[in-house]
Write a structure and sequence with these properties.
424 residues, Rossmann fold
Length: 424
């Protein structure tokens, strides 16, 4: 049992505290070696950079950028790049830690990493985003590489930003290095199926949960908080599978219709109007109220810390499937467990994205590309196997699904660290 808690002040944000709390609970269950424990609660390395950008009005604005490697025991670090006003060192450290457990859980030869820039990409022009991305790439170039740290899209970034990232890195090297980034356009080495991979992975594990709970998925009601890449593709795939998507929301507003929303129509509306506000196919609902509506499956796929000690007792769902990273506060977990709500934790549920990123990385290294059918078959195999492993440990050790998932991931990395030893 660890006797004292040491957390560096610059990391000490609520989301980092949450990641450490989750880790420590699992570490206690595992009776983890205290020397290994100390190595897990802080990242292997962290870099903070200034990113000066000449804006369209010719002024120079300096953004704060970060890149963190939590671990590289199993192979290169792997993690997304986030553009959001909320980005800070503590958030990036927490996300990198979760990525470590996620990669280990599904059996990928990666460690966890994360990066980001504190900015609001929604108010920046394409030209400003490109300049910022290229300068950020140059500033962190000493920490990245196809055998060192591989980047991917995350909140506020997309395949175009990954294309600029890959091109900038390649310019420094003097030749094309497509495997430095995943989630790229297919035309420059991206993988088919990567864009919808996280949503596809969520659907795989939801269907496995339906089987375990003996629930017929036909016409079952689903509510999704967040309608970005993850939320939209999850909604679309569940809609196509015959579920009723009764509620969805974005940063501005939400929609509710107990008979089911027309997901393709909402998507077309958003393409024209950017947000779903004003769509006539459902009643207005807030992001907060969406979490508490009657539904079979609740999918928080927006931002962290949405399900808390205050609202966990008011949830009216059978399954919570975490599409976002860290959407549930640690204090809420026992409440959900006591109420019999089946939780599919983030490190399992949203691991489809990094899994297909791994496929893309492998394809880039080999210069040999897979067909869509092969990508989805391999993804389904990985997700179903991981779900079964987590469920088996949950039942055998009488712990909830989050604890089981963390225990599996942490134990795998711990064994690898002990086998490798400590240098020097």
């Amino acid at each position: 049992m660890r006797k004292e808690k040491r957390v560096l002040p610059e990391y000490y944000t609520p989301i980092y505290q949450m990641a450490v709390t989750q880790f420590e609970r699992a570490a206690c269950k595992l009776d983890l070696d205290p020397n290994i424990w100390e190595r897990f609660v802080v990242p292997k390395r962290a870099l903070m950079v200034s990113v000066p950008v000449r804006m369209d009005d010719l002024s120079v604005k300096v953004f704060r950028g970060y890149r963190v490697h939590h671990d590289n025991t199993m192979g290169p670090s792997k993690g997304g790049i986030r553009y959001s006003p909320s980005v800070n060192l503590g958030e990036v450290c927490a996300l990198a830690m979760w990525m470590t457990w996620k990669c280990a859980l599904v059996g990928l030869p990666f460690g966890g990493a994360k990066g980001g820039i504190a900015c609001d990409p929604t108010v920046m022009s394409r030209n400003e985003l490109q300049k910022m991305t290229r300068r950020y790439t140059a500033e962190i170039i000493q920490m990245i590489g196809p055998d060192v740290d591989v980047v991917a899209p995350d909140m506020g970034t997309n395949e175009q930003i990954m294309a600029w990232f890959m091109d900038t890195y390649s310019q420094f090297k003097g030749y094309a290095v497509p495997e430095i980034a995943t989630g790229k356009p297919i035309s420059i080495g991206g993988s088919v199926g990567r864009t919808e991979a996280t949503g596809k992975g969520l659907v795989f594990v939801i269907m496995e949960a339906f089987k375990y709970l003996k629930i017929d998925p036909d016409k079952k009601s689903v509510a999704i908080q967040g309608f970005g890449n993850v939320g939209f593709h999850t909604a679309r795939l569940l809609y196509e599978a015959g579920c009723r998507v009764v509620a969805v929301s974005d940063v501005k507003s939400g929609l509710y219709n107990k008979d089911g929303l027309d997901i393709p129509a909402i998507n077309e509306y958003i393409k024209k109007n950017k947000f779903m506000e004003g769509f006539k196919g459902g009643d207005h609902i807030s992001n907060e109220d969406l979490l508490e509506i009657h539904c079979d499956v609740l999918i928080p796929a927006a931002i962290s810390e949405q399900i808390t000690e205050e609202n966990a007792g008011r949830l009216k769902c059978r399954i919570v499937c975490e599409g976002a990273n860290g959407p549930t506060r640690p204090e809420a977990d026992p409440i959900l467990n006591e109420r019999g709500i089946f939780l599919i934790p983030d490190v399992l549920a949203n691991s489809g994205g990094v899994t297909v990123s791994y496929f893309e990385w492998v394809q880039g290294l080999q210069r040999l590309f897979w067909k869509e059918k092969e990508v989805y078959e391999q993804l389904g195999e990985v997700m179903r196997s991981a779900f079964r492993n987590v469920l088996e440990l949950s039942l055998s050790r009488n712990v909830d699904m989050r604890m089981a998932a963390l225990m599996l991931g942490i134990n795998k990395i711990s064994e690898a660290k002990l086998a490798r030893g400590l240098f020097p």
